[in-house]
Amino acid sequence: MRGLFASLTLALAAAASTAMAEVQEFKITIKDHKFEPAQLTVPAGQKVKLLVVNQDPTPEEFESYDLYREKIVAGNSKVVIFLDPMEPGEYSYFGEFNPATAQGTIVAQ
Q1: pTM of this structure
Q2: In three state form, how does the secondary structure of the chain look?
């Protein structure tokens, strides 16, 4: 019984490791209160790791009603946001502290 449990534990750990290794990372930079790139294309149907780097000295918030995500990014810092697999389409996001300039779209295809 112990051997079976150990085998199952190793198999689950290997599967989790493989799943995490397959998550693609994409980068969005905040500079001069704007998101760069303003439009980011990601694969549809796959989990995505989004690295948001704030190069401004002031904080900004990555907020998306479409993606159900909200995260404050302190000045001169970065955050990681995981996005669940998305259907093909466009998903908007914005910076709540500078909504007139900090706007962007993620396109899943």
Answers
A1: 0.79
A2: CHHHHHHHHHHHHHHHHHHHHCCEEEEEEEECCEEECCEEEECCCCCEEEEEEECCCCCEEEEECCCCEEEEECCCEEEEEEECCCCCEEEEEEECCCCCCCEEEEEEC
- Closest by CA to 59, choosing from 74, 41, 70, 81, is 74
Note the CATH number of domain 23-108: 2.60.40.420
| Chain-centroid distance, C-alpha 81 | 4
Q: What does the alpha-carbon distance between residue 59 and residue 56 come to, in Å, rounded to a whole number?
A: 7
Burial 52-77 (b: 16+ CB within 10 A, else e): bebebeebbbbbbeebebeeebeeee
The Cβ of residue 83 has, within 10 Å, a number of other Cβ atoms equal to 20
Give pLDDT tens digits for 58-78.
999 999 999 999 999 999 999
Amino acid making up residue 56: D
